[in-house]
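Researcher: I'd like a candidate sequence for this fold, 407 residues long. If you have to choose between options at a position, lean toward the conservative one.
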């Protein structure tokens, strides 16, 4: 039985660590089962996390081109077929023997190139896998691909493939939890570096740069947020979810949210600190958020729901008089090979669902309260990674909280 904690990043001969071939087989099995349960015959996927889940492709990412670079075709019970950007094909042929076959694709934007891909590559693959009259699930694609499939494969019915993947990824395997723990160890290091570097006279961008240096030094692939989030003082009231050239000053609250990815899995960790001495109001806000987070974590047990967790957090923060100052965003989200994935905690927009918590679900829980017109800023978020277990919830992130801000 693999350990559910981070064991170290290197391959060693004295300890069994991460069995990635076994994990790939388990992930493929989970998707195959979801395909069968939902009555889908195959999948054609382009979202980075879905391609990674099925193929383990670690690809070069180009800004603004996610879902346009690499894809995967899967027929129920078969091996995944990698549809790779031309720049990835040689590497994939050389080092990824577990995929069924590998085919070059263009950037999936220009209609003529998309149509050429469908006619020359996708149609033969679909026919070879017996899907020409089947239901094929897709996730995020452009209209050019949908229209081209309709012209060249009129017997294919396109359905929701992302729902299949969300079902497969909902409950994590033990191997995934150990990898997420390793990502948390890196994310903790990144967060601690940022906390250590936050002081008067430095800019938000300086601290973000220091943290990103640690991310790559520790073997991380990328941050949880593409735009590293370091916000200080009034930039947290309301929150500016980016890093800027604002200079940190004595009395500023400072929030850090950068996280880490390791071997495709994310850690999302956030901490608020104070530069200098806090005001009484800043301490009250921080204490409300901290106690709300702790109360919510305590509710994260099998049988309780995401709504139970949200209601508990909101009620505890309300006890401090800040229920109407919660940030206009969900309070928590699922996380794994997707940076943010269902189910969500505290989502208030139409369509939000109630889901019962199950062991081996992983969440990032992140209540944020902001109050305007507080000198040095009145915005606080604290974010932890939480594993639902058969018993007590397990906090995977380990960065210390800011005791100077607790009442």
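Model: Candidate sequence:
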């Amino acid at each position: 039985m693999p350990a559910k904690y981070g064991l170290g990043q290197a391959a060693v001969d004295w300890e069994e660590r991460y069995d990635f071939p076994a994990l790939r087989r388990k992930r493929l099995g989970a998707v195959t089962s979801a395909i069968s349960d939902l009555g889908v015959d195959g999948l054609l996927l382009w979202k980075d996390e879905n391609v990674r889940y099925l193929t383990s492709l670690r690809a070069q990412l180009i800004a603004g081109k996610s879902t346009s670079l690499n894809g995967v075709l899967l027929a129920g019970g078969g091996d995944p077929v990698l549809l790779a950007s031309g720049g990835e094909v040689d590497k994939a042929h050389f080092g990824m023997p577990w995929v069924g076959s590998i085919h070059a694709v263009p950037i999936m934007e220009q209609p003529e190139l998309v149509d050429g891909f469908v006619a020359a590559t996708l149609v033969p693959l679909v026919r070879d896998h017996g899907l020409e009259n089947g239901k094929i699930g897709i996730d995020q694609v452009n209209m050019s691909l949908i229209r081209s499939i309709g012209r060249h494969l009129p017997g294919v019915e396109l359905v929701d493939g992302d729902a299949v993947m969300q079902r497969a990824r909902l409950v994590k395997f033990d191997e995934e939890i150990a990898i997420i723990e390793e990502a948390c160890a890196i994310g903790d290091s990144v967060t601690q570096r940022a906390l250590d570097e936050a002081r008067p006279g430095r800019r938000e961008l300086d601290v973000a740069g220091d943290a990103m240096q640690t991310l790559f030094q520790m073997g991380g692939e990328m941050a949880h947020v593409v735009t590293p989030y370091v916000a200080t003082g009034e930039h947290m009231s309301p929150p500016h979810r980016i890093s800027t050239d604002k200079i940190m000053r004595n009395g500023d609250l400072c929030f850090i949210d950068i996280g880490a990815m390791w071997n495709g899995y994310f850690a999302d960790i956030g901490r608020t600190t104070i530069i200098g001495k806090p005001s009484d109001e800043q301490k009250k806000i921080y204490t409300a958020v901290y106690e709300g987070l702790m109360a919510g974590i305590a509710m994260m047990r099998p049988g309780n729901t995401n709504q139970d967790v949200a209601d508990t957090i909101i009620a505890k923060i309300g006890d401090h008089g800040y229920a109407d100052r919660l940030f206009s965003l969900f309070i928590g989200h699922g996380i794994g090979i997707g940076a943010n994935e269902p189910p969500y905690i505290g989502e208030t927009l139409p369509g939000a669902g109630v889901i019962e918590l199950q062991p081996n679900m992983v969440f990032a829980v992140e209540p944020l309260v902001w109050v305007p017109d507080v000198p040095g800023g009145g915005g606080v978020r604290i974010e932890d990674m939480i594993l639902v277990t058969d018993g007590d919830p397990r906090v995977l992130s380990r960065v210390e909280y800011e005791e100077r801000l607790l009442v």
